[in-house]
Design a protein that fits this description.
By secondary structure, the chain is an all-beta fold. Helix content is 0%, strand content 48%.
Length: 121
């Protein structure tokens, strides 16, 4: 049995500038998973950097509120919302609240650096 507690996962700044903690990743634990699972945080008033993955992704908002941008579409999101992000979609999320925007990221197949483009323009 593998149980990972969020507090035991090292926090790092991801390529899109979110505070990330990887909970489950098949390349880092002996797991038979197709996907990876991470916990993300965007501080109040901040925005993740525009990026795209060649894989599909799901955000599940745990707390806070923001605006999700996927290609040309923008929608307000808050706790309890699940957001599907299709492969190759240009995306970022902006925290519109006064508290951290906290969400779970599921990437399928599992996240790999070579599958991500971070836009700097």
């Amino acid at each position: 049995m593998l149980v990972r507690n969020l507090n035991d996962c090292e926090m790092f700044i991801a390529g899109d500038n979110t505070q990330l903690r990887e909970l489950l990743h098949p390349d880092k634990q002996p797991l038979d998973l197709r996907y990876s699972l991470a916990h993300a945080l965007v501080p109040a008033g901040q925005t993740s950097i525009d990026h795209a993955l060649t894989t599909s992704e799901v955000y599940y908002i745990l707390s806070g509120q923001g605006n999700m941008h996927i290609n040309e579409a923008v929608q307000a999101v808050s706790a309890g919302d699940a957001i599907y992000i299709p492969p190759n979609a240009r995306q970022h999320i902006h925290n519109t609240g006064q508290e951290p925007l906290v969400f779970i990221c599921i990437v399928d197949p599992a996240w790999r650096a070579e599958d991500e483009i971070v836009y700097t323009d």
